[in-house]
Q: What sequence folds into this?
């Protein structure tokens, strides 16, 4: 009975105790600390707390497994092997936690460093990769494997790896170049020469994520972004001139047309929050068309997407005012004179 207890029940008890303690800490202690961090609205504290998510369960599970293994009578070689595996798992878990913590600080810095770096997942992912590689080097050193010959081998194999990962490395360095140039930032509305347009949502190590007005997601490789002609509607100013084409009949009083149109335009610019404050709208006649005299009404929207609401309201009110004033917007017609 004593052998059964020592060989089976006690190791299982240690292992389950580690798991239960980890779960309790995750569900109760971690949750309470997270709620406190949210209430205090301290971003540094929140980053530290969020980085601990899952670490209690992982650490105490490893501790429980270590205690369980050391209560069993195993061969010294087997005991040593299992201990090394558990320590390696602990080093990887610690590296994962440090990587997530530093990635959180990098994200916070890029958000606060306005005009220096854009807040994307690219730099956070690079930070995680660096910490993970450091963790691997620590594990290699722990196992007693000389690092210097391995670094030499990596240097010799670097060319082969670079050729194999040419597209991946090209996209990663293109993403870094896009961010460091400051010409495109998260939240900018852009249009590519190929026609895709939308808000820049993220720039990862491989793709730039663009969200168009249809709320779909467009993924563009960073190398394509770096070599494409891009129109950025948020650099250096978000304000956008909006031209609304209008045509009136040939027998219209153009002075009256201009006066009425400017009145409606001023009314829309003052009442809509989509309009740029303080902008004075104006019109420019530019064409004698087949059935109308055409002109453009120039308004100004706060940003690219607001132009649609501005046009919508202006066209409705202008049409209503033209009807009240007897100004005709003619149908496309053509008069034919038949020779007898």
A:
């Amino acid at each position: 009975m004593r052998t059964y207890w020592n060989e089976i029940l006690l190791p299982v008890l240690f292992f389950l105790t580690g798991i239960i303690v980890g779960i309790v800490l995750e569900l109760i202690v971690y949750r309470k600390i997270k709620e406190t961090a949210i209430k205090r609205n301290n971003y540094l504290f929140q980053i530290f707390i969020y980085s601990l998510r899952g670490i209690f369960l992982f650490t105490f599970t490893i501790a429980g497994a270590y205690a369980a293994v050391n209560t069993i009578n195993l061969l010294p070689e087997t005991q040593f092997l299992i201990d090394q595996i558990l320590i390696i798992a602990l080093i990887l878990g610690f590296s994962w936690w440090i990587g997530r913590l530093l990635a959180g600080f990098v994200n916070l810095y890029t958000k606060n460093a306005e005009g220096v770096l854009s807040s994307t997942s690219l730099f956070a992912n690079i930070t995680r990769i660096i910490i993970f590689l450091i963790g691997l080097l620590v594990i290699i050193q722990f196992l007693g494997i000389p690092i210097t010959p391995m670094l030499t081998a990596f240097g010799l194999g670097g060319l082969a790896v670079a050729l194999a990962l040419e597209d991946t490395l090209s996209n990663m360095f293109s993403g870094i170049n896009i961010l460091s140039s400051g010409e495109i930032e998260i939240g900018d509305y852009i249009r590519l020469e190929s026609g895709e347009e939308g808000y820049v949502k993220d720039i990862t190590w491989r793709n730039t994520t663009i969200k168009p007005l249809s709320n779909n997601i467009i993924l563009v490789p960073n190398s394509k972004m770096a070599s494409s002609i891009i129109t950025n509607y948020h650099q250096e100013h978000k304000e956008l001139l909006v031209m609304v084409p209008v045509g009136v009949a040939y027998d219209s009083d153009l002075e009256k047309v201009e006066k009425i149109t400017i009145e409606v335009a001023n009314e829309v610019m003052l009442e809509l929050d989509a309009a740029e404050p303080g902008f004075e709208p104006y019109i420019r006649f530019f064409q004698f068309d087949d059935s109308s005299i055409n002109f453009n009404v120039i308004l100004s929207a706060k940003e690219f997407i607001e132009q649609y609401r501005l046009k919508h309201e202006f066209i409705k009110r202008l049409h209503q005012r033209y009807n009240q004033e007897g100004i005709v917007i003619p149908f496309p017609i053509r008069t034919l004179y038949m020779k007898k």
Q: What stands out?
A: Residues 245 and 296 are 4 Å apart (CA to CA). The domain at 183-232 is CATH 2.30.30.60 (SH3 type barrels.). The longest helix spans residues 2-40. The chain has three domains: 2-169, 183-232, 240-325.
